[in-house]
Specification:
alpha/beta; nine-stranded mixed β-sheet
């Protein structure tokens, strides 16, 4: 059960000249986008990745930087890796804007093989970030997606050469969106887009010419029990990656299994993933966009009434009483709407379970986890239809 740390131990001393850039390299840089480099490379001045990693490791507890011990372990491995330490970072950017309901982060890496990698951050621990994710269920475009396009144009103007884009979770969504809606001359430079378990898009995006143009260059990866990567509409095929975790914990990229310069690939996602996908799409299809928007606003209205800014603050036991008070303070009309929408979700889940159990309906058992394909071939599945 090898992971990105084994990959760095096995291949970290191989430069990109000795072993070309691959999807595991893209995942590592995508994970790095979660870390707060602050003023390490805020403008056009580049800093070596190894130097930036050491600066983050030197920060004290409570200072922005790595999210946890696993992030710190990755920084330590990268700082000592010939493959990564000499890459140069520039234009490190992060922004949380409650007014615009936007949470955004990105950096640009000059990888040393003549190419430029633009890495987008996924959802962080802020309530704003989570609300922006849910806004995607009713809004054709959200503020973070617009910012992603602007950032890509800025990055493209800072360095010549082929462009590679990537991100994990929402970061993967932003990478695809930026690649689809950037200027034609920028899109022509894009070599590949790495979407690591990122959610999909509204129908308007899927039908856009820029989206169709970039699709052949999108490499989408999801774990075998993917939930996040199945959300919304997708026009791209995807490759299923084996994870050594279960359920939603497979969204964690540190659990994805690696073999040499590639992921351990499977034929298809599990029955559980398809069941959740079917239930959520059925639920969303039964709601108008206005209903989705009212539901999201109502839920976050309750959460924000607690005064919490982050998810961690929200689940703090000391805030439990405040959360209960906020829930009981919801007006009758809003409460009825919330119950109606949640009841519809329960009904959709029930229908999905009954359909899966119907005679003649075949789904791979959850415990099967697919099967590794011979020769490491990519497992492809029919693209999910817009919700």
């Amino acid at each position: 059960m090898a992971d990105v740390f084994d990959y760095l131990a096995w291949r970290g001393e191989l430069t990109l000249a000795q072993s070309p850039f691959n999807c595991v390299d893209a995942l590592i840089l995508s994970v790095l986008a979660y870390m707060s480099f602050g003023d390490a490379a805020p403008g056009g001045e580049a800093v070596e990745l190894g130097t930036a990693a050491q600066a983050l490791l030197a920060r004290g507890e409570g200072e922005p930087g790595a999210r946890n011990g696993t992030d710190r372990r990755l920084l330590e491995a990268l700082a000592g890796s010939a493959r990564f330490c000499g890459m140069r970072l520039l234009a490190c950017e992060e922004c949380v804007d409650p007014r615009r309901e936007m949470q955004f982060g990105a950096f640009t890496a000059l990888t040393g093989d003549g190419a430029v990698f633009v890495a987008y951050r996924g959802t962080d621990n802020t309530l704003v970030g989570w609300k922006e994710d849910l806004n995607m269920s009713f809004a054709p475009v959200v503020a973070g997606q617009r910012r992603a396009v602007q950032y890509l144009e800025r990055a493209a103007g800072m360095a010549p050469g082929p462009l590679r884009l990537g991100g994990h979770s929402k970061g993967g969504n932003l990478a695809v969106y930026a690649g689809a809606f950037c200027a034609p001359e920028t899109q022509a430079r894009i070599e590949a887009v790495f979407n690591n378990d990122g959610p999909g898009f509204a129908p308007e995006v899927l039908e856009a010419g820029g989206y169709r143009n970039i699709l052949p260059r999108v490499q989408a990866f999801v774990p075998q029990t993917s939930i996040v990567g199945m959300l919304m509409g997708h026009g791209d095929d995807y490759t299923v990656v084996r994870s050594d975790q279960v359920g939603i914990m497979q969204h964690d990229p540190y659990t994805w299994q690696v073999l040499g310069p590639d992921f351990v690939r499977l034929e298809q996602v599990t029955a559980g993933s398809r069941l959740v996908d079917r239930a959520l799409k059925d639920w969303l299809a039964g709601l108008t966009r206005e209903e989705r928007e009212r539901f999201v606003d109502a839920v976050f209205g309750v959460l924000e009434a607690t005064g919490a800014v982050t998810v961690r603050q929200l689940v703090d036991p000391h805030n439990a009483r405040v959360l209960v008070r906020a829930m009981t303070g919801v007006d009758e009309k809003t409460r009825a709407m919330l119950l109606r929408v949640l009841s519809a979700l329960a009904s959709s889940a029930g229908r999905a379970v009954r359909q899966a159990a119907a005679p003649g309906h075949r789904l791979r058992p959850e415990t099967g986890d697919g099967a590794a394909l011979p020769g490491g071939a990519a497992g492809q599945q029919e693209p999910a239809k817009p919700g």
